[in-house]
Amino acid sequence: MAFNINVYTESTPNPASMKFLVNKLLLNGSVDFPTKESAESSPFAKELFKFNFVAGVFFASNFVTISKTEDAEWPDIEPILKEFVKGAVESELQVREIVQEGTPEFEGTDAEIKIQQILHDYVRPAVEQDGGAIHFKSFDSGVVTVELRGSCSGCPSSTYTLKAGIENLLKRMVPEVTEVVSEAM
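Predicted structure:
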């Protein structure tokens, strides 16, 4: 008996991105394909980029966040993408070539490890809820640099989330932190 795949959509804080959720785990972790060229390792993303209105593709756990081109309208393309995602998941189109991933290995100073752990445990799940991802880049002289991906990349409310949410949390939990900044993708 075949497992019935359901796809439903959620808007994200970024009006150019929509989250397509499925009732199946797509991958552990997350992977971002901000351009057609970056999607070479992903059969699933490569197929999505064949639609001329797809501008970016981001996968995490049980969803794919798709960013559209400016000239496309969600009411026109959402049903097409929903049907495509359903078919791709049913036919087990790979998100990426199989690479085994375990729990993340955090590296660096004690403060850097603590920052990465907090981002992984507290911030990542919330950011994934909005169809995005956050990645630790560096910690230097009190400044934490992160990279925002998926729907968070270029989202109007991401600066507020970064300053009001993430920066306050890290300052409270890691006294060495003075500021959190985002590096553009």
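Summary: The chain has a mean pLDDT of 86.
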